[in-house]
Amino acid sequence: MTSTSYPSSATDWRGVFIRHLVEALANQVQLHLWAPPGDLPTTVTYACLPEEAAWLRTLMEQGGMAHLLRTGGLSRVTAPVKLLTLLRTAYQRHSHLNLFHVNWLQNALPLWGTTQPALISVLGSDLGLLKLPGMTSLLRQVIRTRRCVLAPNAEWMVPLLEQRFGDIARILPIVFGIDAAWYQLQRDWQNYLPRQWLVVSRLTKRKIGPLFDWGKDLFQTDQELHLFGPRQEPLDVPAWVHYHGPTHPQDLKENWFPHATGLITLSQHDEGRPQVMLEAMAAGLPILASSLPAHRNFITHQQTGWLTDSQEEFRRGLKWLTVPQQNESISQNARQWARQHIGTWADCTQRYLSAYQWLLS
């Protein structure tokens, strides 16, 4: 398995979903992991050479590949070239293994020259890569030389992937799992005043969206907005926002989700199926979200959440979700939906194992 993201410690927020995936798969397969260094299950073989591990650690410290591509100056060119070079060497070094599990389309490009079956995870941000001139043709050259599954983590990406790669690869949506502990969380939000609304997001213009404009007159005395996440673009955070910096799932689970009225995201980013939103649903925390195709794919308006595409609808959603009966109804529906359609990481593992078996058949 290859990934350019992995948490360095138990309190690191970056790549937590990869750690959960690795831990779950390690119980079922003999896994070799090429990723930034961090705590691994004892049954997992770390596949990086020292030089590769050091470079990946630095990449994480600099904010990751996506951040460098947005703001890195010369690094926008040198970092991708270095990554592809290291990955090509790693794939060739491990050509004796049965198959490759590649996270993100960009990491599939260096598969050229190998023939192992490959499962390639596709996230929403990957679709931006396909907008680059010639990228689809390059990926087709890599994919057509092997048995391949393209596994988007949300169904809404399937038509585009079918159009570009359906003749040479199997397009099989595989949703990630949710840590079982989220389903056990008990909320006590009605006893907390002022009402607390949470935003858990990287601070970029597209991820924040119109939040600061729409919310400036709404979060004053009886409602508070608490923002968590790394600042990856020079955005000014208004004084009425309680900004806490980066966080990690354990902090949210113990200190914030139980007392919050809901989770807000007005992202305009190319989303897949954001993990923090799935965890919120499993925890029974109502979500007020922008009406993106990705969000509409798993949130039903006024049933499992509230969708908005205007400032007035945003205002109405805040008011509607502060009514205890309506908040609790959304909470129960969202948790039930998450159990039925997402499940745990153990359920996710079974979905991947089925794809592995098809690849090796």
List key phrases describing it.
alpha/beta, Rossmann fold, four-stranded parallel β-sheet, 361 residues, globular
Summarize the structure in words.
With 361 residues, the protein is of the alpha/beta class. It folds into two domains: 16-177 and 344-360, Glycogen Phosphorylase B (Rossmann fold, 3-Layer(aba) Sandwich), CATH 3.40.50.2000; 181-341, Rossmann fold (3-Layer(aba) Sandwich). Helix content is 41%, strand content 13%. The protein has 16 helices and twelve strands. The protein has helices at residues 16-25, 50-61, 65-71, 75-93, 126-129, 135-143, 158-165, 180-183, 205-208, 211-215, 249-256, 275-282, 293-296, 311-321, 324-341, 345-360, and strands spanning 32-33, 45-46, 100-103, 118-122, 148-152, 170-171, 195-200, 223-228, 241-243, 262-265, 287-290, 306-308. The strands form three sheets. Strands 9-8-7-10-11-12 form a six-stranded parallel beta sheet, with helices on both faces. The chain has a four-stranded parallel beta sheet with strand order 3-4-5-6, with helices on both faces. Strands 1-2 form a two-stranded parallel ribbon. The two termini are 19 Å apart.
Supply the number of helical segments: 16
- Quote the distance from N terminus to C terminus: 19 Å
What is the H/E string? Answer: HEEHHHEEHHEHEHEHHEEHEHEHEHHH
Assigned CATH architecture of the largest domain: 3-Layer(aba) Sandwich
CATH class of the largest domain: Alpha Beta
Helix content: 40-55%
Low-confidence stretches: none
Number of strands: 12
Let me know the largest β-sheet.
6 strands, parallel
SSE-based structural type: alpha/beta
Radius of gyration: 21 Å
Strand content: 5-15%
- What number of domains? 2
What is the global morphology?
A: globular
What's the CATH superfamily of the largest domain, by name? Answer: Glycogen Phosphorylase B
**Cross-sheet strand order for the largest sheet:** 9-8-7-10-11-12
Task: Kindly report the average pLDDT value.
Answer: 94
Q: What is the CATH topology of the largest domain? A: Rossmann fold
